[in-house]
Amino acid sequence: MSVDDDLDRLLDNLPFFIQHHLNNHANKEKLIEVVMDLGRRAEARFTTGPEYVSQKIISWQDIEYTTRRISKFSNENRAGIERTLHRISCIRNRQFLITGLTCRIGRAVFGTISIIRDLLESGQSILILGKPGVGKTTIIREIARVLSDEMGKRVIIVDTSNEIAGHSDIPHFGIGRARRMQVAKTELQHQIMIEAVENHMPQVIIIDEIGTELEALAARTIAEKGVQLVGTTHGNCLENLIKNPPLTDLIGGIQYVTLSDDEAKRRGTQKSILERKAYPAFQIAIEINEQTSWTIHEDIKKSIDLLLRGTFMVRQVRHVSKSEKTNIKYRILQTDSLFKNSNMLINQFIPVPIGWMRQTQSNHLLTNNLKSKKLIIYPYSLSNNLMKEVIFKIGFKVLLTKEIKKAGIVIGLKKHLRQNYKLKKLAKQRNISLYTVNQNSVYQVIKLIQFIMA
Fold first, then answer.
1. Assuming Cys at both sites, which of 92, 232, 261, 432 could form a disulfide with 128, CB separation 3.0 to 4.6 Å?
2. Domain named AAA+ ATPase: which ranges (predicted)?
């Protein structure tokens, strides 16, 4: 993995006392941004934490020195430096005079997306989620280069704030052969997205920070035209999108549905439930937890449906080790409902070779070599005969207990277990995982235990 940051070109535009301090700093390569506020000491923020640059207080002259040496600020109060990826944002007072600057270092990191290379080759649309500053823009910049240079695809970048390809009219080399369309005003981004498809025949369109209902609708329109999408949006996980009405179109939209009495009884749910309205605009979702650890949803449609039903959810976690090897593991999460997770996670990860990934997922992570494990179950509202039949058929070493204190997990009927707050509280205090099934069904209990033992 290599990094190109043109850091010296940014430092050359800062006051001399800041330049001198940062040029001689031991952690210069770990610099994230430099903050200059009128009447305060300049602050440098590193990946290791913030620190003051010097004892000198920032004056009007220091701010003016920097603003004169960079490009003009846009309507979004952002500016840049020609042929670099650096971004300078300003804070203004009531008279629109600049009283503060945030100078953020832009880096082109080559090799950062090797962890998801197989997903890019699949040709499916990818949505990247993460909180601000986690590196989403750096990731899609590298995706643009790989898709255009190494895979030979026609790639168009809709670059609203010039963060992906730099502030100059000539795009930064970090995007490879991909073409860039600039957006004059942020509110016009959705129009440029549609224009890119209609005028330039791309195979792939890349959009940074999808944030409005119009942009989500434009992304859906592009997906229906058969163009591969790669986009980013703010959020820690898929649940955030479900709870964000303007962006629900990205994952198919959410609607209330009223079930018949028989269907509600069969599902073990209330009559009014949430369901997905249509197919999502994206097929794959990537949650950026950390720079070296990403959570993958290889089928957004299935993940959303499972979240809405309040059942099991299998999340694939990819981690890059110090030796730059990719480890793929699975984490099984049980969700009681859309708005309340049980947070009872299985404290076990399943390493999966990258070539077996899709095969393992299609087989629901069933394994045949884990019969040596022992599981102690406290059955709640499940008949003894049913549990004995499950133990007979399962083949694992499963023990039943009537004392919850001795149990490793609790399995019960969903409609009964969700109402027993005392049992839930006791399980939480003793760190005992709770699992539910919708019916008194041998098949459901067997599938559940196979998930747990996987």
1. 232
2. 122-278
**CA 243 – CA 19 distance, rounded (Å):** 45
N-to-C CA span, the chain: 34
What mean pLDDT comes out for the span 60-83?
A: 91
Neighbours of 378 (CB within 10 A): 22
Report yes or no: 25 and 4 within 8 Å, Cβ to Cβ: no
| DSSP per position, 199-234 | HH--SEEEES---SHHHHHHHHHHHHTT-EEEEEEE
CA-to-CA distance for 268 and 253, rounded, in angstroms? 23
Q: How far apart are CA 427 and CA 436, in angstroms?
A: 14
Q: What percent of the chain has pLDDT over 90?
A: 37
Q: Is residue 368 in some structural domain?
A: no
91-101: per-residue pLDDT in tens? 999 999 999 99
DSSP string, 164-204: TT-SSSSPPGGGTT-EEEE-SSGGGHHHHHHHHHHHH--SE
Of the given ranges (61-70, 174-183, 259-268, 419-428), which has the lowest mean pLDDT? 259-268
CA distance 79 to 94: 20
Mean pLDDT of 311-315: 68
What CATH number does the domain containing 345 carry? 3.40.50.300
Q: Which two tokens stand for residue 137?
A: 């823009």
Do 93 and 208 lie in one domain? The reply is no
Which two tokens mark 396?
Answer: 């694992």
Distance, in Å, from the CA atom of 89 to the CA atom of 104, rounded to the nearest integer, reads 8
Of 17, 156, 174, which Cα lies nearest the Cα of 86? Answer: 174
3-state secondary structure of 287: strand
Rounded CA Rg of the chain: 26
Name the nearest CA neighbour of 250 among 298, 216, 275, 224. Answer: 216
Structural domains counted in the chain:
3
For residues 124 and 282, give the distance between their C-alpha atoms in angstroms, rounded to a whole number.
7
Length of the chain equals 454
Asked, for residue 208, whether it belongs to a domain, the answer is yes
Q: What are phi and psi of 109, to 5 degrees?
A: -105, 115
